Amino acid sequence: MIGITRRGLALGAASSVAVAGSLRDVLAQTAAQAVATRNLPRTYSGKKLKITWGNTPAYLQIADFSKQFTEATGIEVEFVALLQADRYQKMMLDASSGTNTFDLYLTAYQWKEQIAAYAADLTHIDKEIKGVPDQDWADYPKAALDAYGRFGDKIIAAPFIGDASMLVWNKKALREAGLAAETAPQSWAEVIERGRKLVTGSQYGFNMPAGKSIQTACIWITLFHGFGGEYFTADGKLGLGGEASVKALRFMAEELGKITPAGRLTWDFPEMINSLATGQAAQGYMWAGGFSTLFDPAKSSIAGDLGFAATPQAVLLGGWGIAVNAKSANADAAKLFVGWLTSPEISKLATLVAGQPCRVSSFRAPEAVARFPSLPAVLEAMSGKTATYIPIKDSEQINIMIYDEANAACAGVKTPEQAAGDLQEKALTFLKRRGYQRG
Fold this sequence. Notes:
By secondary structure, the protein is α+β, with helices and mostly antiparallel strands. It has two domains: 6-163 and 317-382, 3-Layer(aba) Sandwich (D-Maltodextrin-Binding Protein, domain 2), CATH 3.40.190; 164-316 and 387-433, 3-Layer(aba) Sandwich (D-Maltodextrin-Binding Protein, domain 2), CATH 3.40.190. It has 22 helices and ten strands. Strands 3, 6, 7, 8, 9 and 10 form a six-stranded mixed β-sheet that branches. A two-stranded parallel sheet has the order 1-2. α21 runs antiparallel to α22. The longest helix has 18 residues, at 416-433. It is globular, with a radius of gyration of 22 Å. It starts with 5 loop residues before the first helix and ends in a 6-residue tail after the last helix. The relative contact order is 0.17.
């Protein structure tokens, strides 16, 4: 039986670097011969760069792919694979303490304001560092470039992994249930209607995480915005306890929860993707990063029957950028690496490896779309109206409050009304203490 565990998601990916060997070899050779690689200087040969990195398949595949940079420049790159929460803590401790162990940081856009004071300006690196290809900043979806990279008049992170919340489904299961397998639901009400008809035997209708994890917060944020919620009212007051918040919590607890497998109160991303890949859940919430697994027949029982579309009613923007530590002793070498890895030419090749581009040209590359048919849908999701995490410096703290209260509502410890009220009260107290709100 195909299955993925938390440990297996990281260690299995490390052993497989999940691209077929022949394709990996061809891409490595192509990358080595690319103009962007051939123009790299050996000015910094012997330098070593250290970067905070992800631990899921896409990141491990790209780390392996990046050996071409080392061969061309003589610069060694150490990718330190970390869980998302650990990346944040390592980054901020390293930068704020002045330790400067890391030369580069993989950074989420909700951390942008906190890392901005320590990050180098990348706006003109193609003119400042010899060998850096033209960065063509216009080749990114505007929402992604603004969210991942821009801070004031600077670009402090090069967009790297493009991501948006997606709805996926098992077309075979829908056909067997007499449902339209090629049609995407236009509302969350339709998701529930389909999901109820998909519950049969050991099969469930959704893959909702309800654990104390960021994925639970992501579901809530997507529903909250889809149901008309806004973080702040027109007059600047916090709006986390209103009708949209209650509706999102009730929908999670009383609708999605009833068609999701037991154990969801501890679920995070590995369980979400595993339930889809094994056929346990016939619909689900997913990030673009999961498609490399779901399209892989060796890892997914639904690889040939995968339906996908942006989440209905609202899309939550995900994704990552790479920032250069301005105090790094190897800052110029680090800029060279970022400029090479995120350049239009290398981005297209990396897309064939991991399936998670951020550049528009890579999303549209025919060979990439042939390998990952979901790419046009992801680009469309990223290019439309998108929701983001709460736009404050301490958004991570609010996300923790969101998933704590969502977990309580889904566990039945609190009513949706109580959970929404407590979320509002906790967040407001925090924002007042930090000076975001008065009165």
